[in-house]
Specification:
This protein is α/β, with parallel strands linked by helices and 449 residues long. The protein contains seven helices and 19 strands. Helices cover 20% and strands 18% of the residues. An eight-stranded parallel sheet has the order 1-2-3-4-5-6-7-8. A six-stranded mixed sheet has the order 9-13-14-12-11-10, with helices on one face. It has a three-stranded antiparallel sheet with strand order 15-17-18. Helix 4 (319-338) packs antiparallel against helix 5 (375-398), helix 4 (319-338) runs antiparallel to helix 7 and helix 5 (375-398) packs across helix 6. The longest helix is centred in the last third of the chain and has 24 residues, at 375-398. It is globular and about 65 Å long. The model has no long low-confidence stretch (mean pLDDT 93).
Length: 449
């Protein structure tokens, strides 16, 4: 969204605007914004110096999305709860320590409170029955209110880097929860600590690398092409340099640990080693450089889609390609679960694919560790991720080039998808069973005779 001019707003040149973004060091809410009450739907005031919002904000009766990240608020404004259509609220890195019960709009779908100092959530969050996405990483929460058990629509939950002493039992019963990140809390410290050092990882001196072009950037770091002079040979690799700050998913140090602990698998991007001696450049990983034929399976969710990925127009897959993608990702997830790692972000936008269904799962920014020997908790966590797989399978099947009702494979895939999406989490299969079922489906004839 382009940045607008405060001068244009005050001169009336933005009359009728549906979106408004102001980033000009504001210390007070410009009253002229209220003149857009008949049209304004999206308001972005991030990166200013606001500490409060006026009671008149509720006059913006069409306002659906409000971003105020990076402002020095200490209390989430109660007027938010009076905005009749407000469904997405973002106050990341805003020094918040208090969330009043009245501040949460009942129609809320997406709440971003990452990187603040919040030590408690109000019980009123349980009234947000349509809440789908809740971002709470990097706060001071020691508990979550039991009333959140009523948030039956919750699909994505980020609670990493808090002070939680236990995962609440009701969390495992949420019918739609699919993407969970909880690393960096006291309750999982005993599982994490042995893995965070990465002592067994190969160390690659920064001096042996020549950084090249930037290949991409995510929430936790920047990826460069690089030339590695190792063992007398020169090879092209990819280097991820971590930013070292809190992300929407959690701490980059936990992402690095998960990448190193993931081990080798045909459907994971190979990690070659940990960067050493990088100095001010910071921490990093050296990874295999992926063939340029690979591209992202989809784009990340939009403001409108909330939790579902955005595929290119006309994206289509053969049944066999869908089977190969699904089989590769299910096998990768089963491999990770066997090593006590929950990926936490099993999404199409974190999958690279190339021709005929070859697929690689990447981005461990939301990964969390668990103890496989704690079978009850381990299986419950794994079944949450199985629902994420169900969402992926649903998207792929919907874009299948052979929508014929006589396709045995397509019918079987749809049946498996429904099982993986079962609203009763304990009824979902684990990934070992999913793998076996995918193998059975692959052996079916394409159509009824």
């Amino acid at each position: 969204m382009p940045v607008n001019s405060l001068g244009d707003l005050r001169a009336g040149r933005l009359a009728g605007a549906r979106q408004l973004k102001l980033a000009c060091g504001l210390t007070e809410f410009p009253s002229e914004i209220l003149e857009l009450a008949d049209t304004l739907e999206v308001l972005d005031l991030s990166g200013n110096r606001l500490t409060s919002l006026p009671p008149e904000l509720s006059r913006l009766r069409h306002l659906r999305i409000l971003f105020c990240s990076g402002n020095p608020f200490t209390v989430l404004p109660e007027v938010l709860g009076e905005c009749p259509r407000l469904e997405m609220v973002g106050f990341k890195s805003s020094r918040l320590h208090t969330v009043p019960p009245a501040a949460l709009p009942p129609q809320l779908r997406w709440l971003i409170l990452t990187d603040n100092a919040i030590d408690a959530l109000p019980a009123s969050i349980g009234r947000c029955s349509g809440l789908q996405k809740l971002m709470l990483a990097g706060n001071r929460l020691s508990t979550l209110p039991d009333e959140m058990a009523a948030c039956a629509g919750l699909e994505l939950l980020r609670i990493a880097a808090n002070r939680l002493t236990v995962l609440p039992p009701w969390l495992f019963d949420l019918p739609r929860l699919a993407w969970l990140a909880y690393a960096g809390n006291p309750f999982c410290a005993s599982v994490e600590m042995p893995r965070l050092g990465g002592d067994a990882a190969i160390r690659i001196p920064f001096a042996d690398l020549s950084l090249g072009e930037r290949l991409g950037e995510g929430a936790s770091g920047v990826i460069h092409r690089a030339a590695w002079r190792g063992d007398g040979e020169r090879r092209q690799v990819a280097v991820k340099l971590f930013k070292g700050s809190m992300t929407s998913d959690g701490l980059p140090s936990h992402e690095m640990a998960a990448c190193l602990e993931a081990g080798s698998h045909a459907s994971l991007i190979p990690v070659l080693g940990r960067l050493e001696g990088a100095g001010q450049v910071g921490e990093g990983l050296v990874m295999a450089l992926i063939d340029q034929a690979f591209e992202s399976l989809a784009g990340p969710p939009s403001l409108a889609s909330c939790t579902r990925d955005i595929y290119p127009d006309g994206a289509a897959f053969t049944v066999d390609a869908v089977l190969r993608i699904a089989t590769g990702i299910a096998a990768a997830a089963a491999h990770l679960h066997g090593r006590g790692i929950l990926h936490g972000d099993l999404y199409a936008h974190n999958i690279l694919h190339a021709g005929e269904g070859r697929a690689l799962l990447g981005d461990f920014g939301a990964a969390s560790f668990f103890a496989p020997e704690d079978e009850r908790t381990a299986s419950a966590l794994q079944r949450i991720e199985v629902r994420a797989f169900a969402c992926l399978l649903d998207e792929l099947v919907a874009r299948c080039e052979v929508p014929s009702p006589t396709s045995l494979k397509l019918q079987a895939l749809a049946s498996l998808q429904r099982r993986c999406a079962d609203p009763q989490p304990s009824s979902r299969p684990l990934f070992a069973e999913v793998e076996a079922e995918l193998a059975r489906i692959a052996a079916l004839p394409s159509r009824f005779s």
